[in-house]
Design brief:
InterPro entries: Glutathione-S-Trfase_C_sf, Glutathione_S-Trfase, Glutathione_S-Trfase_N, GST_Omega/HSP26, Thioredoxin-like_sf. It is a single chain. This protein is 48% helix and 10% strand. The protein has helices at 51-62, 79-84, 116-126, 137-163, 168-181, 196-213, 224-234, 239-250, 252-257, 262-278, and strands at residues 2-3, 26-29, 35-39, 42-46, 67-71, 93-96, 111-114. It binds glutathione. Residues 47, 50, 52, 74, 89-92, 115-117 line the site of glutathione.
Length: 279
């Protein structure tokens, strides 16, 4: 699938534009109708349900550039992916630049990028007009701290509750830790501007909400997770976290990537697999 954020404009057909002379180099307009010339091809390798891949998918949607998204079957990884894209065998990964080739025939001329957080940071650096990277060093620090708290505390507590025998208390504590770092009365984590903090955290913030809403969990009692969802969405104590989660879930880039139905189904099927193993 080729995703393109091109805004159509009559100037695109202007004979003075150097498209024909530049051959393979792509050019397009961004949403502010300014010409982006010589943009290099971007191929993003993903799986649909991977939250780490979702970080990169959200960041690339935010910067409004054309890119190709290609699904990797992790249960049957193609040899070309391991040898020519990411020897670690993980998604996400990116092939950047080089000739326009089919995603399953990556060119040795493209640069390969891996690790979701590094990819989010690279997207922010490569496309600075998106303002994904906060302007001040202090806000960059704050963004990175939030990313760290989400990835180390929230993800750990969520995975423990979903897949093992984690407790509701630990998940609540981790939500409180995240909430403490969110700037009060901002729409997103730091301000009304969507930044790397939001792109990197959105897949996990949305998962907490979707997981609890759907009452999922390996060792939770029926109704226990839904009870946590009611607590977070109704108790004023969690109002900042909940308003943040709502803003995240409503962001078009996040809505496009995080499938309300698909994510709980994945958790649910994993839940069933683990349950049957325990029987
Ligand atoms: N640290 C990596 C983690 C990525 C990761 O664990 N991706 C999973 C899918 S969600 C994966 O590719 N797993 C490989 C496998 O299942 O063999 C990142 O942030 O990019």
């Amino acid at each position: 699938m080729v995703l393109t954020a091109v805004s159509h404009d009559s100037r695109r057909d202007d004979a003075e534009l150097p498209e024909s002379r530049l051959g393979k180099i792509q050019f397009t307009y961004n949403e502010n109708m300014s010409l982006v010339m010589g943009s290099k091809q971007i191929t993003l390798y993903i799986t649909q349900t991977c939250p780490w891949a979702a970080r990169a998918r959200i960041a690339l949607r935010e910067v409004n550039v054309p890119f190709t998204e290609h699904d990797i079957d992790l249960r049957n990884k193609p040899q070309w992916y391991l040898s020519d894209v990411n020897p670690a065998g993980l998604v996400p990964a990116i092939a950047y630049g080089g000739p326009n080739v089919p995603p399953d025939q990556p060119s040795s001329e493209s640069i390969k990028l891996r690790e979701s957080l590094l990819i989010v940071e690279w997207v922010a650096d490569e496309f600075p007009k998106s303002n994904l990277l906060p302007e001040s060093p202090l806000n960059r620090y704050r963004a990175r701290l939030i990313i760290d708290v989400v990835a180390t505390k929230l993800v750990t507590a969520l995975n423990a509750l979903v897949f093992r025998d984690g407790t509701s208390e630990d998940l609540i504590k981790s939500i409180e830790l995240v909430q403490k770092e969110l700037v009060p009365s901002a729409k997103y984590a730091l301000s009304d501007q969507f930044t790397i903090a939001d792109a990197a955290s959105a897949p996990f913030i949305s998962r907490v909400i979707l997981f609890l809403k759907n009452d999922l969990g390996v060792s939770t009692e029926p109704g226990q997770s839904k009870g946590l969802y009611d607590l977070i969405t109704q108790d004023a104590k969690f109002s900042r976290f909940w308003s943040y989660a709502q803003a995240i879930l409503e962001r078009p880039s996040v809505k496009d990537v995080i499938n309300e139905v698909r994510v709980p189904i994945r958790y649910d099927s994993l839940w069933l697999i683990i349950k049957s193993r325990n029987c």
